Amino acid sequence: MRSIKLYGYATSPYVRKTACFLYYKGVDFTHVPVNPVDPTAALGDDKGTQVPVLEIDNEWRLESSEHAHWLDELFPENPLYPLAHQKKIDEIDCWISDKFLTSIFRFAINDGNPIGLDFRFRAWRLAALVSAHTPLPETVRHKWPELLREAPFIQQMANHMDLNESYDDMRLRVFTELLSHLSDGPYMGGIDQPTMLDLAVFPQLVWGYMFGLEENLSAAMHTTVKAWLKRVSEHLPNNPTLIADEMQINSLAEALS
Ligand SMILES: N[C@@H](CCC(=O)N[C@@H](CS)C(=O)NCC(=O)O)C(=O)O
Question: pTM of this prediction?
């Protein structure tokens, strides 16, 4: 039996994405929590600081979308990148990587304004979720809003965003683009089976509600999205996010019933 380890912190959308690939494949794996302020403690000196890192039998690789291809090579069942749909998947995967996943970080981009209360509460909750796996000192938790704002990889994302577009306009645009990619379903791109696309987007739409960052499962207010979330959820465990179960606030199954 292969040894499979996924290194990362569950507050990273890319880590949640690779986790959902593994859950969908139905392969046993170990989640190795990484402390974002001291990544080498878990990753060692040879893997750098970026997560997720997927390690299979002592070989390790970066880049979440690459993980889908690697997993298909090793475990062909339940393909994440089915041959018949590669062109469509490549196209939507680019949108997911360049637009959808980066939009999640927009709230943390330093726009020159003082940190507002909403951002502070969100950042403190994120620190609590991280702490459930890799306990952070109280002083670090307290400074989490500032630390997020200063994180170099988040600042780099700002270079690829149109910061003239308002936060609300960006959210609406990305949601509209998501709807167009859902097409007529049943899965993203109009594909008849779940692929890496569905598994990359799904956890990002549900985790905030499940773990106390959002009061409502807002994506499910749209009937097409709700039906798609329900379909994808049937291929995954109740908590596919890697966040510690004891931190869960809301039931996804109830919100989708
Ligand atoms: N393109 C990468 C992006 C991964 C990424 O940006 N990870 C962030 C966490 S959300 C990270 O590790 N940042 C810290 C660093 O790069 O040192 C992927 O898809 O895996």
Answer: 0.97
